[in-house]
Amino acid sequence: MCLELIEKPPRCVLKLLTEQCHMPKGSDLAYLTNLHAEFENHPCYVKGDDRRKWEKEFGVKHYAGCVTYAVEGFVDKNRDVQQDVFFDFMSRSTNEFVQEITVYQDLLGCTVARASGNATTMSRGTSKGKPTLCDSFRHQLQALVDVLQATTPWYARCIKPNMQKAANNYDEKLVLDQLKYLGMLDIIRIRKEGFPIHMPFLDFIARYRCLDKARLSRSYNEKEAVRCLISSQGVPETEWQIGKTKVFLRSYVHEPLEDCRNQMVTSNAIMIQKIWRGYAVRRGELLSIL
């Protein structure tokens, strides 16, 4: 994995991808030749081992591995503009909803015009200021970046079990590569070496004071109460730390505490049920006699 790519993505490559139509007499081959000449020595650029494909494709090393791009149709697709004839047919539709959609025909053009410092791409055979697919992609991507910067997103990390999306098929190598690219192995290692369980003093005491047979004295302050409670369970001092407001535990220390608490709660619940059922039976017999 290219660590440089995580901190500094190959923006120069992406910039050239979105400015390909500015090349005079641009073509797919000329575009690819410019890429090879400009980025052949870049660590994130892959020209390819097969010389027969040097005129057809190139690769970029992303954080999740190398991605190969075929350049066929790159320049022509970028010259595509909004189809005025298509919108004309839609405007004459008998369906009111389809007619309303034509209102958004110039929406991208207005967005491009309002963008500061960015001029709309001008392509051969198109009218001045007409937004192209490249313009659409660029400004949609910028809008996405603006939304991400203005919010606090949470991501769900998904693992693909196989490339065919087939059931009951688990590709171990593919899954392992994805775990490496996501950094999950490093995260697991860091969590094992650190103190991933953080609990405020009051929460810790309220949850685990049932484990102390002598019961904690109310004269203890919160920090001392936590210290006495952990010490009574025989937990080594190297496996926990006391902070200003929280206690920090390792995972393999927290799990036994939870097991002991569950056993204690279960046994006490059974005892309470036993006593209540006995009382209910005796009271029922007494009422039947009376």
From TrEMBL:
Answer whether the UniProt record assigns the keyword Glycoprotein to this protein: no
Provide the residue span(s) of the region labelled Actin-binding: 141-163
Task: Mark the transmembrane ranges.
Answer: none
Q: Does the keyword Electron transport apply?
A: no
Q: Which GO terms describe its molecular function?
A: actin filament binding; ATP binding; microfilament motor activity
Extract the InterPro entries matched here.
Kinesin_motor_dom_sf, Myosin_head_motor_dom-like, P-loop_NTPase
GO BP term (any one): actin filament organization
| A GO CC term assigned to this protein in UniProt | myosin complex
Domain Myosin motor residues, every copy: 1-262
Keyword annotations for this protein?
A: Actin-binding, ATP-binding, Motor protein, Myosin, Nucleotide-binding
Homology family: Belongs to the TRAFAC class myosin-kinesin ATPase superfamily. Myosin family.
Q: State the name under which the record lists this protein.
A: Myosin motor domain-containing protein
Upper lineage: Eukaryota, Metazoa, Ecdysozoa, Arthropoda, Hexapoda
